[in-house]
Amino acid sequence: MDDFNETSQERLKVNPFLSIWLHPKQTTRYMIEEKSIGFALLLLSIGYIGVTLSDLIDKISVIDFSPWLILLFCVIASPISGIIGTAFVALIAWLFGKLFKGTGTYSHLFKGLSLTAIPSIVLIPFYLIWLFTSPESLMDPNFAGPYPWVFWIAILLSIVVAIWNLIITVGIVAEAHQITNWRAFFTLYIPCIILIALIILVIVLFAVIGILAGTM
What we know:
about 220 residues; mainly alpha
């Protein structure tokens, strides 16, 4: 619990862009106590450019557009998707965290979870290179030609960032709510299990209705 005993002077030394990778709890405490919502929005606006660019994989519907136009769209859409997505996840983490006696506020969760955008920043240069040098291999799911060298780096980094985001998100929620990592894990993934169960239930209901309708 050393993270809870840090002085403000020690937290001022934290660089969120570097420390979030290995010290998510320390970085979250710094973010909550030293940074504003405006800084959180800035992180989301920058980091989600990497997320939006990586989402271009197999998006054949935009392959005929200029790479510059696609980039402009990504820059405009990134803050919107980042803020909405993080606001929703923060709401879920805030509500379910209360079941595990979490003490964090919605603001704490939102600011903390904005840190998950930082790892995606490393994706930006590689997806930009991929977009401008070989857009067909990026966006065409039926592409059969040789892939550019940047393909392998971009895909590997995407996997690493996705895995690392899952890990640091648990630490962020634990610190924001002042709960253990295990409670933070269940705070995040119980809603996922419930959502999956609801989706399966809806699919089964529609299938049953379809079968009954076909026999009538």
